[in-house]
Amino acid sequence: MASVNNIEKLLEKYFEATTTVAEENELRVYFSQSEVAPHLEQYRPMFAYFSVAKKEKSTRDVPLKPRRNTNYLKWISVAAVAAIIFGVYINRPAEVSPLEETYTQEELQSARMALALFTDNFNKGTQGAAHLAEFEKNTNRFLINE
């Protein structure tokens, strides 16, 4: 049987999320006993709940049917690109840009580099979405054949 000091130390470690599985089992065993130290009695329901919840199993069926309407990622990326192009067209610079009056050339160059980085990462994301769509199409083909 574990000492109360040992259980208190294990509780501290437990709440700091540094216990091992064996130490957590020791806590579960201690709190499942009929005699628990009065100042530790408040933790008994918590460990009792964990013991019951661990035994619960889901009986719900998880359908593995292919999802329909997966083209929304393509349309979202097309809409985003269209919105960016429209925004750039509406805000096209005049002959003398007021930005050049407000910001230094170094600041403008930094902003251009940030936008270039954003577009590169956005393009990588849309390419990744295309790969995901191809993966889903092939996966669905295997699932439907089964």
Structure, described:
The protein folds into two domains: 4-55, no CATH class; 72-145. Helix 1 packs across helix 2 (21-32) and helix 2 packs across helix 3. It has helices spanning 4-15, 21-32, 44-55, 72-90, 98-102, 105-145. The two termini are 54 Å apart. With 146 residues, the chain is an all-alpha fold. The mean pLDDT is 78.
First-residue to last-residue Cα separation: 54 Å
Content-based structural category: mainly alpha
Mean pLDDT: 78
Number of DSSP-assigned strands: 0
The rough form would be described as elongated
* Tally of helical segments: 6
Please give the largest β-sheet: none
Which features does this protein show?
146 residues; single chain; 6 helices; 69% helix; elongated; mainly alpha; 2 domains; 0% strand
Please provide a brief summary of the model.
With 146 residues, the chain is an all-alpha fold. Helix content is 69%, strand content 0%.
Itemize the secondary structure elements and their pairings.
Elements: H1 4-15, H2 21-32, H3 44-55, H4 72-90, H5 98-102, H6 105-145
Helix pairs in contact: 1-2, 2-3
